[in-house]
Design brief:
Two copies of one chain form a homodimer.
Chain A lengths: L1 E5 L8 H13 L3 E6 L1 H8 L9 E5 L10 H7 L4 H10 L5 E4 L3 H12 L9 E6 L6 E4 L9 H18 L6 E5 L10 H12 L3 E6 L2 H5 L4 E3 L2 H25 L3 H10 L1 H10 L8 E4 L5 E3 L6 H16 L2 H16 L2
Parallel strand pairs in A: 1-2, 1-4, 2-3, 4-11, 6-9, 7-8, 7-9
Antiparallel strand pairs in A: 5-6, 5-10, 10-11
Amino acid sequence: MKIIIDAMGGDHAPSAPVRAAVRAADELDVEIILVGRTEDIERELSESSYNKERISIVHADDVISNHEEPAKAVRSKKNASVVVAARMLSDGEGDAMLSMGNTGALLASGLLTVGRIKGVIRPALATLLPSAKGPKMLIDAGANTNCKPENLAQFAVMGSIYMKNVLGIKDPTVGLMSNGEEEGKGDELTKASFPLLKAAPVNFIGNIEGRDVMEGSADVIVCDGFVGNVILKTVEGMGHVVSDKVKGIFTNGLFTKLGALFVMNGLKEFKRTMDYREYGGAPLLGTKKPVIKGHGSSDAKAVFSAINQAKKFVETSVIDDIVNNISGMEEKSHD
Amino acid sequence: MKIIIDAMGGDHAPSAPVRAAVRAADELDVEIILVGRTEDIERELSESSYNKERISIVHADDVISNHEEPAKAVRSKKNASVVVAARMLSDGEGDAMLSMGNTGALLASGLLTVGRIKGVIRPALATLLPSAKGPKMLIDAGANTNCKPENLAQFAVMGSIYMKNVLGIKDPTVGLMSNGEEEGKGDELTKASFPLLKAAPVNFIGNIEGRDVMEGSADVIVCDGFVGNVILKTVEGMGHVVSDKVKGIFTNGLFTKLGALFVMNGLKEFKRTMDYREYGGAPLLGTKKPVIKGHGSSDAKAVFSAINQAKKFVETSVIDDIVNNISGMEEKSHD
């Protein structure tokens, strides 16, 4: 299996992607193609010994930064690392691609170059969030600002398939994010989506509320990309602030530092639960081949998690299942 | 000053409202009118000595529960405690009202019985949320599921006035909740609202994102009631889960219990930051007189905070300032 990595994307590029690639080539039984500026990548690679048969470099001159307008950058920079990576994936030179760079550029490349699965109206970004009951999926986490009910129904189907295949959850529950649990609650979009989710081939449990995100009441949380982005960033921001506060408790004076010694294991466990690095990347669901967005601030550990996740994505039948179930939905809607 | 309290609303009614009223009558220089079933209220009152000159009871036979459809219940139950309280406020028998009961019923009573300030299109529920930089306001936190740009502009003005008057924040900053910081980001509503917020008499700092909620980047966070409800409940839910986890760190075995002794003060401080009870209730802004929603799970301490907040609301010029600024906005839009 070959995984194509945009080596130039993310806050810690190329260091984090390259170091993660070295580790993955050792531990995961995968080949890695690093796409980006050869010189920069080689400089990073030279700092460690690595499996030369499993890691190769494909040169790409350009980089799309986080500040660029995505669609425009993807059109104009044909030799940007993320664009080259997507073209290679589309051409069959790899089995999955991963980028920690500009989210919009990755989405545009996935949509335009890798392409949609037939019947999928819009691919969606699916993020795993920590909860009291383990990782849960938020879909759409930001790919589609304006959605229709049909989009949300497809998100539910694609998200369920991923959670079943990659996370091994049997018959994952699906909740529709709303402002109340009762069926009548919601804005125009969620009210119109409710019956479609009910009819979709998923384990729909009805409307859920914001508090259900962290309580882990549903395995798949369905919403449009605007609401999903707000939820994702609210949770991330709160994670940072709370971690800082908890850390602060243990750094004020000698007594509390002593206290920290007593609770070291508990603290580590707490930190792990709140740590996005444990949860890999966010798959773009609905494209013909696996495309994964790693967190922009990913360190080597986080990129390694995302590579591992890409591998599971490829090994399981996510794409085939989406192909089969989405075409099934289409047929139903023509009945 | 007379504060009217729906003594029958909330998970801990009538105990919590009555006990809070007893304390407020002692400590806050306010008179309290408790509205609800006389027998139930008297039974609670009989359990403590209280200032009889400052606490009175107005009988109301009915109660609207959390499970009832609000608008219907308010129309059909003319003698429900919340409806009677709103009628009394409207008739000038008190200066502010507070309820911990059914949110929709309070909103409907506020809107229909207390009435809107001239020029206010829709009143909004404004909640204070904890952040790294102190309490910040989320408006609308759930009163209006579907909003227009003009609504959001008015929410910004009303929220700023409240933060200035009641929380003493000079020139409060206003952020528009969106899915990106750049001016062009957002869904249809936020894009159309951006220029109106820019033109409004507020200290508008542009779009903000979910992470800014807890980071406290804006004093007033403006959004529609659907998004606001999702944010509020996501934060509340995360607060519960995190508090449980942090508590869990200190209850696993003797060593960690010893650890807790060392960090007691820090832990208390942390808990206080995450504790909604410190932040009082959520004012409904845009009604002719102060209406405040207390959290449904409020204990006596939380109800006391909300009474204190109601007092500040009455003492300051929030209502007058809204009257003056909203009519100013109307005039501008006719230029």
